[in-house]
Amino acid sequence: MALHMYNVRRIRGVIQNLKAAKRTFGTGPEPEKQVKQIAGSRVFSGIQPTGIPHLGNYLGAIKSWVTLQEQYSCVLYSIVDLHSITLPQDPAALRQNILDMTASLLACGIDPERSILFQQSQVSEHTELGWILGCFTSMPRLRHLPQWKMKSGKKNEGSVGLFTYPVLQSADILLYKSTHVPVGEDQVQHLELAQDTARIFNYKYGDFFPVPKPLLSETRKIKSLRDPTAKMSKSDPQKIASINITDTPDDIILKFRKAMTDFTSEVTFDPDGRPGVSNMVAIHAAVSGVTVDEVVRQSEGLDTAQYKQVVADAVIQTFSPIREEVERLRADPGYLKEVLSQGAEKAKELAIPVYRDVQRLIGFC
């Protein structure tokens, strides 16, 4: 009993130390103290409507999206439903997933007053520009992109939509003359296609599209809790392999308790030699807002079983208010639809002049 109480106090001590470290190292200044917005820059990023995001989505993209609202003068975030239908979708499920993703983004901190949040299919200029850009893109180039290789399988077969998916991505970005695009390491090649497409168009018609620059995520890729060699994914058949932002505290504790680690008890960071424990360290550092080294230092003396509880508590602390806000927003679908409708109007105000100029340049009018 005495040993148990000591362990509880030890875990609580680690959590308190990390909170103090977070205040010291921080995740950036408060909104009113943020650096001056970068004038003339425009950020675009999209996310597929897969319903409620998981921990990897949050740490790899959404968390940084919230920060970018403060740093750039114009930010657009699109729920890319056109991309989602490259794979079969149930219509009713897709409608709900779009609203669930909208609720999730708002709950995580995306502010419709500081960014433009909209549904891709509601701005028809995306597909119209996509057709034009497709006429400047070679088939061999598309065959070598990871999206086609990964989803077409060994038979190299798939829909035309899947094949031209990266062209529509380029149109998404260039339609708004975006200067910066937040990307993960696995998305860089698709951004390179958008960059090359801009250069090809500019060479033929004059300096028109900015060549967008990547904003690489600083967060390490979050892995599956059951297979730390694979990324966390909604499609994982093992439901305990991923953590959704709306999971209850009990669910989160259970999933971390069953997370795959190894037989070494101490907490270290060695992604190649100890991928399971290292994945938890990466998660812990990202949700706590401190460095990996600081997390490891603060966890000295804990075995992996105790450390799993520490990480679970840190994730619970982050997700509890988000979960409550998601549920509140999901209960008001009319509001969510209105947010998307207003966002589409704002996006169109930016897209229509650009697309008209493209039509003029290529000779449509």
Automatic annotation (TrEMBL):
SUPFAM superfamilies: Nucleotidylyl transferase. Keywords: Aminoacyl-tRNA synthetase, ATP-binding, Ligase, Nucleotide-binding, Protein biosynthesis. Its main location: mitochondrion. It is an enzyme of class 6 (ligase). It comes from the Eukaryota. It is found in: Mitochondrion. It catalyses: tRNA(Trp) + L-tryptophan + ATP = L-tryptophyl-tRNA(Trp) + AMP + diphosphate + H(+). Its EC number is 6.1.1.2. The keyword Nucleotide-binding applies. One of its GO terms (molecular function) is ligase activity. The keyword ATP-binding applies. Pfam families: tRNA-synt_1b. HAMAP family: Trp_tRNA_synth_B. Belongs to the class-I aminoacyl-tRNA synthetase family. This is tryptophan--tRNA ligase.
